[in-house]
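Table S2 (text version). Query chain:
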Amino acid sequence: MDPELEAALRPLPQATTLPPRCYVDPDFYAREVERIFRREWLCVARADQLPKAGDFISFELFGDPLVAVRGDDGEIRVLSRVCRHRFMPVVSGSGTRRSFQCPYHLWTYALDGRLLGAPEMDRAADFARDACRLPSLRVETWEGFVFASFDSQAAPLAPRLAGLQRAIAPYRVAEMRTTEPLVFEHVWNWKVMVENFIESYHHAGVHPDTLQPLVPASGTFADDTEGDAFAILHNPTRQRVPIPALFPATPGLDDAQRAEFVVAAVFPFHLFSVQHDSLVWYRLEPRAHDRFALHIHLCVPPHAAEHDGYAEQLAGMKLFLDTVHRQDIAACTGVWQGLGSRLAAPGRLSHLEKAIWQLNRFVLERVAR
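Corresponding structure-token output:
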């Protein structure tokens, strides 16, 4: 193996970052798409975003237009949005439909992908309507998150995340309710965003007036995780005081759980953090080696909206999330600029960057394989 890649796989006390080419090389990204993204489970929605039959959310992954929809049978499916006739997407955006009708030639599909109608096709020899349907991906719902996989042979997701499930179980993540996201388009490699999310070493430099006063960088730590499918980062508050709550707190948490927020990543790029009164979830849609779309969702306890002052609390929390992310934008933009330098080289990792080391091993072992 290349010495620079091998250095990233060493034990953490001796490990380095990935070399810059792993971020800026379009060919490396193409290998990630084929060897990681199209083989792993990717989070595409929350189940509560699709509460009733016909509710749908459309999106795109690696050039494939897709739609997540709840069917009449209550099942959530992820279907191709590409008409089986002349390739026009049959739906866009989000909302509620009883069926999907292609706007080009009015072919109509059921919520489970079956072809319901195809005008003027009676003269097409051997046209089998029953065999013509929108392709579907494998789907698994875990803790309220809807995951999909392009790989029909992918191992079930939940057993791989047993350790993560135990860590977040007290917070009742599946019960949280999703609000409208903050939406961004960024011009960096996806790993720059993931790495920034899963280490708090940068709090002192990047968030001196937002996160660092409450959650100092030096007190954060990552778990030794089971296998390589996920990372868990603990962010305890200074002097272990409870995190201020805007929304009704999850009942049953102990003092330590109320005095930290837990950051988690399901590799490759499902990111979320949870604390005693809320959940924040980042949905990435990589577009190329140097750009991706980002939706930042705030999720609140199930009855939060019934309490006085909810609208103001929601707006205040979203303003805080926007402020924190814009601080991260400045940092990630700087990292991306540095990665493009001919003089850039791998650097050593801190013990506070264990989760990045775990991500690097996940990526390299799959790309190399």
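Notes on Table S2: The first strand starts at residue 42 and ends at 46. Residues 3-40+163-368 form a domain with the Naphthalene 1,2-dioxygenase Alpha Subunit; Chain A, domain 1 fold (CATH 3.90.380.10).
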